[in-house]
Amino acid sequence: MATENKVRFGIIGFGNQGSMYAKFITDGMVPSMDLVAIADIDPAKLTQIEETYPQVQRFDDYKAIIDSGEVDAIITTVPHYLHPEIATYALSKGIHVLNEKPAGVYTKHVKALNEYAKTVDATYAIMFNQRNNPLYQKLKTILDNKEIGDIRRVNWIITTWWRPQAYYDQSAWRATWGGEGGGVLVNQAPHQLDLIQWLTGVPEKVVSRVQYGYQRDIAVEDQVHAIFEYENGATGVFVTSTNEIVGSDRLEIVGDAGKIIVDDSAVATIYRMKESETDINKNMDVDGVRKLMTGQLAFEELYDKEVIQEENVWGLQHSGVLENFAQHILNGTPLIADGQEGINGVRLANAIHLSSWTGEKVSIPEFDDDQYLDLLNQHITDEGKFDTRK
Amino acid sequence: MATENKVRFGIIGFGNQGSMYAKFITDGMVPSMDLVAIADIDPAKLTQIEETYPQVQRFDDYKAIIDSGEVDAIITTVPHYLHPEIATYALSKGIHVLNEKPAGVYTKHVKALNEYAKTVDATYAIMFNQRNNPLYQKLKTILDNKEIGDIRRVNWIITTWWRPQAYYDQSAWRATWGGEGGGVLVNQAPHQLDLIQWLTGVPEKVVSRVQYGYQRDIAVEDQVHAIFEYENGATGVFVTSTNEIVGSDRLEIVGDAGKIIVDDSAVATIYRMKESETDINKNMDVDGVRKLMTGQLAFEELYDKEVIQEENVWGLQHSGVLENFAQHILNGTPLIADGQEGINGVRLANAIHLSSWTGEKVSIPEFDDDQYLDLLNQHITDEGKFDTRK
Known about the structure:
Chains A, B: GO terms for molecular function: nucleotide binding. The structure is a homodimer. Chain A is an alpha/beta fold.
């Protein structure tokens, strides 16, 4: 299957992401992969590929590259609606798939892909590169070990996704309901929608305020506020937008036994309490209350503080996921992100849209895939530029 | 009216706040005031007053101190429901009133007080001491001058209001519907509910998730999440709780021309953009987009950054409001906080409760005072400890 213990890799789509991955692989950042083929439907892109990577085979059709016999595995760096379609086709041919995020645009589509992927032997993974940020890896361990106890409150403001009108105007499919299926929730924030549920669990209910075409001339959303309810009673807030030059990236996770604050996805301050808040509360007497009310309670003696800083080297997250995917195929190394998990972020994004459309609180466990697709199709029909979806 | 150019001041209620103000005045922190009388209904408190301030007159009834002829002005440091009742009585006797925050518990009550206060000559002010924080004063000027442009997004997480069960168990009225009228929204967060609307305007609509007795054995709320909608389309988030040992105090205000981040009500980072986001967006071409997407856009060249730090000296905020109130009475100095403005924070708190009770989005301009009072009374009746309100 693999030549010289390397996975023969094909990239489908030579846009921003596809060309970046091609460079990482040919620069030697992904030792267990050979880039052997690239596909794109755009003739100009094919010329560009030929000039940049003359040694690599070119295809103008995703089926052709998958059927070529040249590749063991592919990645789907194409508009989001195509992710499930291409992934399913590749898996049906025994080709391993690294799906681009989001796994798809609507839950019904992604669920069908997930069900199909369970029936085949080929690997199905997903490019959640931010899970490969060493900082988030450490926080995942801290949270899984319950070092800050049961979660009570989560708050992520992630507005560093600034995109100008000229970005949206680049392609006819961008920022449309029919071509892209959403805005910041579908294109930029899927990273954090995955991370927030990976770190603190899938919420149960969602209420949102979504602003469509707020600061951009687009049909889809460029500013989003959502409140999550978790099964244990905890509450989450998720804020994202594409219209802030001075963007925020601030994550707070509060537990019964501590707190984590992450700034700019680079610096985490971890507070570990010596005794849980539940116990401190239970044991505090009137004298403690008097101290509290006169500013004499030494809060800082109740916890230890640790600051973790990780350099976020550009490219290492993505190339690491590519290498992990190849290692999984070659040696069975556990995946950083199983493709099956892609549904969680898609369902969260769909629920946020749905709540804004219906004005209702939306249940995640009882999420109505058909209702969402119906309303999405209504938006596509009203837009009048693309066919509806099934 | 005033002796030796000083206001003869009476404190009604000798609890945490009342005793603190007594100390500030007798320590000479409020040069334009003489503390001449204190009232409390608790005989133990009267003994304590006699021991601490033998020179001060004592009263066991608020009407007696107001009617005594000894005081020019009073402050209402009593349970919140009594604020409008005592303030109205004092104003009716020509006595100047510094109302404690919140102005009252429910809008109908506060509106009646406001209407009455407009018909009398006596001064009606309110103890919004945090408006007297020099940091917030500066931010108010920056915002009023539109230095960061029109507001797009506001986010305040204020969870530094930790209160243990023993605090709630101190008095029978605390954390009850009938005795206090709410939890963190009525007792602790009114400061920030006032500041947020003072700084960035009164929101138009409110949606909330309010957690009643979440981490405390109380009937009222100890954790609150709300989303605000502003008239210009901006969105706000307000988060508060009383169950975090490692509390957060983080305010973000994003405008078209900049951003303000305030940490711990002490350090403000102000970003002023050289060109508005609207203009940067309009003028960015494909080359700019290419730079953005390859990480080469120098965001930091698009704004200037200033850090303002103000030492928050304990007591100066409160004593400053007391002195300002006295100076207003004596010399007509403009008030830091006119009592009329107390309605805004009360209405916000009521709207947050109402949204959680009805599950609906609540309009601020069309706020239904009677509906709120009806539902509050339902809670009081269900609780079965106190009489309903009118």
